[in-house]
Write a structure and sequence with these properties.
There is one protein chain. By secondary structure, the protein is α/β, with parallel strands linked by helices. It folds into 2 domains: about 150 residues, Rossmann fold (3-Layer(aba) Sandwich); about 300 residues, Dihydrodipicolinate Reductase, domain 2 (2-Layer Sandwich). Helices cover about 30% and strands about 20% of the residues. Helix 2 packs across helix 3 and helix 8 packs across helix 11. The longest helix has 26 residues. The chain binds 6-O-phosphono-beta-D-glucopyranose. 6-O-phosphono-beta-D-glucopyranose (BG6) binds next to loops.
Length: about 525
Amino acid sequence: MSAVVVPFEPRVEPAASDDREVRGEEEARPPCTLVIFGASGDLTRRLLAPAIAHLLRDGAVSPDFAIVGLARSEMSDAEFRAYLEGGAREFTPPTQGRPGELPPTVRYLAGDFGDPGLYDRLKSTLDQIEGKRPGSRNRIFYMATPPEADPTIVKFLGDKGLASPDQGWARVVVEKPFGHDLQSGKDLNDELRSVFKERQIYRIDHYLGKETVQNIFVLRFANGVFEPLWNNRYVDHVQIAVSETVGIGHRAGYYEGAGIVRDMFQNHLLQLLCLTAMEPPVAFEADAVRAEKVKVLQSIRPIPENAIDEWAVRGQYGPGVVGGKKVPGYREEEKVDPASGTPTYAAVKFAIDNWRWAGVPFYVRSGKRLAERVSEIAIEFKRVPHPLFSKAVGTLNPNVLRVRIQPDEGVSLKFDAKIPGTVMQIQSVYMDFPYNKLGAPIQGGYERLLLDVTHGDQTLFTRGDEVEQAWRVVSPILRAWEGHPATDFPNYASGTWGPESADRFLEREGRRWRTL
Ligand code: BG6
């Protein structure tokens, strides 16, 4: 099968200080400087460095792209360059070919984010870089920082006039976690909006950068066959799963206070749910798409805190074997409290109270140290209204449309077929579209998302009200669980599919978790 190439026309946001009309080559590849706060951290090395190197290799960004890293640790410009190059080499999967060279301008500034002098040095560094490309004071401020640092950085960017360059645009990229709860999420929004306008703010959720996640839009809205079935007349329920084999690694400092609900549900899983449940947007552009996602979140029925067990199950991994290797339990991980009550697994039922989804439960689960790394969305359709083949050999199964997010990317439809022979024997078969048949290798999400920031396209970024709605949805779960510590942790062994209570939870609903 030959690859289908769809011409890509980047959108450039119109108006105001972001404000200049830009055209032609510059429109497609505007020269800009990526300023990374938290430049010596894991995210920069593991995710940003390879993405930048791939974009430069592919000629997707201007050769005048420049990088300025800021962090507390001392490093020279050359050492920072070597750090990024090491990250690009180490974290470029073999299928992606060789990472490209970094741009000629890579600078590094060591300092404390609370020190005003650091921002003066940043200003003069930007002046030097931008002096060589007149008219293009375009800046991306990337917060690869813990959320506590964000308000200080944002305040100084505002105070020092860095957020509104006179000849060009400034955009700020904010990583998750976006706050710790609804109130801190709102506070962070207020702080960002006191310096930046909403159209300058890019709240990143790397799941939206995944090809297979973007393909949900295409599957649903570029095809006529699925949408008529995509509602409570035909769908019995939806299962969304993000199962991971990794533990928390060295991230106890963050994860102990976060847990699975803040780390995965408030963002990635609710995004998958929104894309699955949303109405067709009026256009494929930022505000139209995000408005539809906000409506889904608004329609999610508040989970009653006092009946949490009917809606959600939590778990924490104990020791076990993953991929043939013995691994410690969560409480034995480096820097984790030996009596920690932090959940590393959750399964939640969401009810979407709107016209399309009334009565169709969305079962969403995710966990660390599970048996396999698999993410998928499964739409399970209702059974046929009348069992015509009740005397046939074999059980009749419901149709299932499976959107395989990773690692075996693709889409498949399960349906029943007659096995050739003289008796009526029925068996499930699959129509399968493996994503790798399209030829081009699937990149990590960061390439696409960084590129969209340079183009001023916010479609794949979460809007302020959307993030707040997502916090509203998960808040009762957090409150209920944090108010009542679990008494049975650890309740699943590493390398299994999670706690038994999760199986019983779905059995009570008359359903079963899909085998991943
Ligand atoms: C991150 C979470 O946002 O997503 C991690 O903080 C998680 O805990 C990761 O492992 C999963 O991303 P992916 O792309 O590997 O599925």
